[in-house]
C-alpha cells in the first residue's frame, strides 16, 4: 500500500469541497500545495478526475522531489517529522474532501455524504459488539440524532406487507432518527418507514435505506432529528438561525464585491431562510470568518437558468484574527465544506464581538 493510499481507504471524493479546501483545477484533475516544516518542503497533492489521490514532497532548498520518506527502512527523527507532517496534510484532505463509504446501500452512502457536506458531522461506532452499527451525534451535546444498522427485515413492524420467508430473513439497512411525536402516525403509513426498531417508539422511527423514501424527504427528516436533539436553550424558534458558509476567494472575489455594494447575490444554500444570519468563512489562504450577513431573500431564480440564489446584506466585518480556523475549532466548528448551522459557542462568540447595538437592529 502506498503512503497516500492508507489515508483514503474506503473513502469517496466530494468534489464540491475541493475548492473550499484550497484545491485548484488543472488539466489532469485537481492540485493542492502546502508548505510545511518551516517552509522547507512543499506537499503537492493531485486528485484525478476519477478521484485517485497521488502526491509528492518537494524539497524547496534544492528544488527537487524528496523521495526518502517512502523508503520504509529509512528511519530517524528528521524523516519521522517529514512523514508526520505530510501525513497530517493528507489526513486533513481526507477529512475535509472525502466521505467514508462503509454502508452497503447506495442511499446510505448518499446520506453519509449529505450529512458530512451539510453539517460536517462524522459518525462513530457506539457499540463494541456491533462494529457495523454507527451513529451521528449532535456536536453541541453528543446526543444521537441518527443510528444506522443492519437488521433482519422480520424484526421491523412490517404488518401486512407481503414478503417471502427468504426476504424476511434478509438484512435491511435502516436508519433510526428522532421525530415530532405527532408526526409518527402519518410517517409510518409510508412504505419504507416503520415504528422504531429497538428504540423509543414514541419519538423515534426506522427508515429502510433502499430508496423506498426519496432522498429529499430523508434529508429533511434527518435535519429535523438533529434540530430536535439540540439543547433547549440553543434552539431558536422565533429568532434568526445563524449559519456559516465557505467563500472561496479563488472562485469569487467577495472582498471586491462588498467594497462596491453591501448587497450581493449568493448561490442558495441548504435550508437557509430569509432573516437568517450567514457568517462567511473565507477559505485558503485566509481560513477565517470575515463577514456576517443577513439574508434578505431566498430561492431567487438565476437569469441563466442555473442554481437558485439568495440575496444577502453585509452587516458586519470581523478582523481575521477574531474567528480564525483555530478559534472556530475551539468553538466547535472544525470544518466548513458547505452550509452548516453554527454551534452555540460560536454564535455566542460572534454576538460578543458584534456589538449589542447591531444585534438590536435585526
Task: Describe it.
This protein has 362 residues and is of the alpha+beta class. The protein has 3 domains: 5-99, no CATH class; 106-228, Alpha-Beta Complex (Aspartate Aminotransferase, domain 1), CATH 3.90.1150.30; 242-359, ph1033 like domains (ph1033 like fold, Roll), CATH 3.10.590.10. Helices cover 25% and strands 29% of the residues. It has 10 helices and 18 strands. It has helices at 18-21, 77-97, 106-119, 165-169, 184-187, 215-228, 254-260, 325-330, 344-353, 356-359, and strands spanning 11-13, 24-26, 29-36, 41-48, 53-59, 64-66, 98-100, 134-137, 144-152, 171-178, 193-195, 204-208, 242-247, 263-267, 277-282, 288-300, 309-317, 340-341. The chain has a 6-stranded mixed sheet. A 5-stranded antiparallel sheet has the order 2-3-4-5-6, covered by helices on one side. It starts with 10 loop residues before the first strand and ends with a helix. The model has no long low-confidence stretch (mean pLDDT 86).
Amino acid at each position: 500500500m502506498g503512503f497516500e493510499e492508507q489515508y483514503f481507504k474506503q473513502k469517496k471524493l466530494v468534489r464540491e469541497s475541493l475548492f473550499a479546501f484550497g484545491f485548484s483545477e488543472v488539466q489532469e484533475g485537481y492540485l493542492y500545495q502546502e508548505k510545511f516544516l518551516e517552509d522547507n518542503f512543499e506537499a503537492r497533492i493531485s486528485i484525478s478526475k476519477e478521484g485517485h489521490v497521488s502526491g509528492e514532497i518537494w524539497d524547496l532548498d534544492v528544488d527537487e522531489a524528496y523521495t526518502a520518506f517512502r523508503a520504509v527502512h529509512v528511519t530517524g527523527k528528521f524523516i519521522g517529522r517529514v512523514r508526520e507532517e505530510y501525513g497530517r496534510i493528507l489526513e486533513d484532505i481526507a477529512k475535509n474532501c472525502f466521505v467514508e463509504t462503509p454502508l452497503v446501500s447506495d442511499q446510505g452512502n448518499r446520506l453519509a455524504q449529505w450529512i458530512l457536506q451539510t453539517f460536517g458531522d462524522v459518525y462513530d461506532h457506539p457499540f463494541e459488539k456491533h462494529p457495523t452499527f454507527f451513529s451521528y451525534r449532535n456536536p453541541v451535546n453528543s446526543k444521537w440524532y441518527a443510528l444506522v444498522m443492519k437488521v433482519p427485515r422480520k424484526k421491523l413492524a412490517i404488518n401486512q406487507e407481503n414478503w417471502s420467508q427468504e426476504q424476511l430473513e434478509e438484512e435491511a439497512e435502516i436508519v433510526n432518527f428522532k421525530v415530532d411525536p405527532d408526526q409518527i402516525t402519518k410517517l409510518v403509513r409510508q412504505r419504507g418507514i416503520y415504528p422504531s426498531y429497538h428504540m423509543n417508539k414514541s419519538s423515534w422511527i426506522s427508515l429502510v435505506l433502499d430508496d423506498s423514501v426519496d432522498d429529499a424527504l430523508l434529508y429533511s427528516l434527518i435535519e429535523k432529528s438533529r434540530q430536535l436533539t439540540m439543547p433547549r436553550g440553543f434552539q431558536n424558534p422565533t429568532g434568526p438561525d445563524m449559519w456559516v458558509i465557505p467563500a472561496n476567494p479563488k472562485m469569487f472575489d467577495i472582498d471586491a464585491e462588498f467594497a462596491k455594494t453591501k448587497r450581493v447575490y449568493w448561490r442558495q444554500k441548504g435550508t437557509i431562510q430569509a432573516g437568517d444570519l450567514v457568517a462567511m468563512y473565507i477559505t485558503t489562504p485566509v481560513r477565517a470568518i470575515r463577514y456576517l450577513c443577513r439574508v434578505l431573500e431566498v430561492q431567487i431564480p438565476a437569469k441563466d437558468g442555473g442554481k437558485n440564489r439568495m440575496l444577502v446584506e453585509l452587516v458586519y466585518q470581523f478582523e481575521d484574527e477574531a474567528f480564525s480556523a483555530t478559534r472556530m475549532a475551539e468553538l466547535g466548528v472544525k470544518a466548513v465544506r458547505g452550509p452548516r448551522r453554527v454551534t452555540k459557542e460560536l454564535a455566542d462568540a460572534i454576538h460578543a464581538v458584534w456589538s449589542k447595538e447591531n444585534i438590536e437592529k435585526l
